[in-house]
């Protein structure tokens, strides 16, 4: 039977999402099944950069939608972000070393069929819709997460 | 044999405690045994809101006790807290969606017999006493944590 | 067969590194094999306090090297650091309770043969060299991490 890894991506930080996606891509290369369950701030990673349907949202949902990052490029660093300076420094250091940026790792993970779940409760509270997320994201509840995690050989909360 | 989930709640953030308790409640509904080992800032979740015995404490312990949150309602957001504005926004968005607040999830977990451990070293360093924690919290050391985690099917550090 | 614990230390915070090392030392006392894979900010824990070879580094790498903590004593708190005041308070509270500081737990873990890996990609991006890390740190990639984690009974992302 294939080994499996399950990541609960709670964080919306650039560096932590990078860690999650590097693990996901490496695990796929080792022929593991990989699930990333995006909850709360972690949903920011799988938001489409350019589609907010503001009309149907409450005031808070609109504000929250505008204040939170949309897609991989907008995520801040978890430490030393310094209004984006620290993040720019990191991404240029990655470029110097020919390490691809977060968006490339996300593309890779999608190509390699990493399964992306979007936490139902988080999606509802934040007022997001399926259209605002990457196409293959499946909206799923905590029971779905737990069943997947129970069947996995590695489970991490990131 | 019953499946088990073990959560090490290190964080004292409202959103992360929410994630832990939602997982704990869902796991109980799936008939899993659930342990939450509260360490460091995570102890703030299981502090009683209204009992500080300041007399027996050192100056640092008194200061620390006053500066740290007491119980679920006082926990800040891990991101965008903005001196409480972000958290108020989130809790109102949860209300709009009929999602219960953190304190309700804590009540649920206690009713469903989630096992709460309080990290002995953290309790001692912070100068907390058993009386300042919810009744069922058992003060336990890292060895107790490790044995419980080894017997568990899911272990997460939150 | 010996039980194993694998910790992915991503955080460079004093309190989280403390949690990781307390778990590592306790697990060793229970006769478990323990691996700590230090990635990103987690590398700061295993940096030598006094060896930066600035000559071979790019400008960004030099800046990053100066701005990030060098070794256990320089790590900040994850919360309430207040420019070091919160951390000083915590370390004095630990002293009052005869709890050893982080550096003592690191020494203990090294003596007990906890295996330290340094994430290859992080080391390269940050421009660190083997000489700047504690002697026994082995530079290893995410595949090495995953294989170790798959063989472990407890895996945590800290």
Summarize this entry quickly:
The structure is a homotrimer of 158-residue chains. The first copy, chain A, has helices spanning 14-29, 59-67, 85-96, 102-111, 120-126, 142-150; strands spanning 4-9, 33-38, 115-119, 138-140, 154-157.
Q: Can you tell me about this structure?
A:
The structure is a homotrimer of 158-residue chains. With 158 residues, chain A is α/β, with parallel strands linked by helices. Chain A has one domain (4-157): Hypothetical Protein Ychn, Chain: A, CATH 3.40.1260. Chain A has six helices and five strands. Chain A has helices at residues 14-29, 59-67, 85-96, 102-111, 120-126, 142-150, and strands at 4-9, 33-38, 115-119, 138-140, 154-157. Chain A has a five-stranded parallel beta sheet. The longest helix of chain A has 16 residues, at 14-29. The radius of gyration of chain A is 16 Å and the shape is globular. Chain A starts with a strand and ends with a strand. Chains in contact: A-B, A-C, B-C. Chains A, B, C: InterPro entries: DsrE2-like (IPR032836), DsrEFH-like (IPR027396). Chains A, B, C: It comes from Natranaerovirga pectinivora. Chains A, B, C: This is Peroxiredoxin family protein.
Please render the helix and strand layout as text.
The structure is a homotrimer of 158-residue chains.
Chain A: E1 4-9, H1 14-29, E2 33-38, H2 59-67, H3 85-96, H4 102-111, E3 115-119, H5 120-126, E4 138-140, H6 142-150, E5 154-157
Parallel strand pairs in A: 1-2, 1-5, 2-3, 3-4
InterPro entries (chains A, B, C): DsrE2-like, DsrEFH-like
Pfam family, one (chains A, B, C): DrsE_2
Protein name (chains A, B, C): Peroxiredoxin family protein
């Amino acid at each position: 039977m294939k080994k499996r890894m399950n990541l609960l991506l709670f964080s919306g930080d650039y560096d932590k999402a990078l860690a999650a996606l590097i693990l996901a891509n490496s695990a796929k290369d080792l022929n593991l099944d990989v699930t990333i369950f995006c909850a709360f701030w972690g949903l920011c990673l799988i938001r489409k950069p350019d589609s907010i349907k503001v009309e149907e949202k409450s005031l808070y949902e609109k504000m929250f939608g505008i204040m939170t990052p949309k897609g991989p490029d907008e995520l801040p660093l978890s430490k030393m972000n310094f209004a984006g300076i620290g993040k720019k420094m990191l991404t240029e250091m990655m470029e110097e070393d020919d390490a691809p940026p977060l968006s490339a790792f996300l593309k890779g993970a999608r190509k390699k069929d990493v399964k992306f779940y979007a936490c139902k409760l988080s999606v509802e509270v934040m007022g997001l819709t399926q259209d605002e997320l990457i196409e293959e994201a499946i909206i799923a509840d905590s029971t779905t997460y737990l069943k997947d995690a129970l069947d996995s050989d590695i489970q991490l909360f990131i």
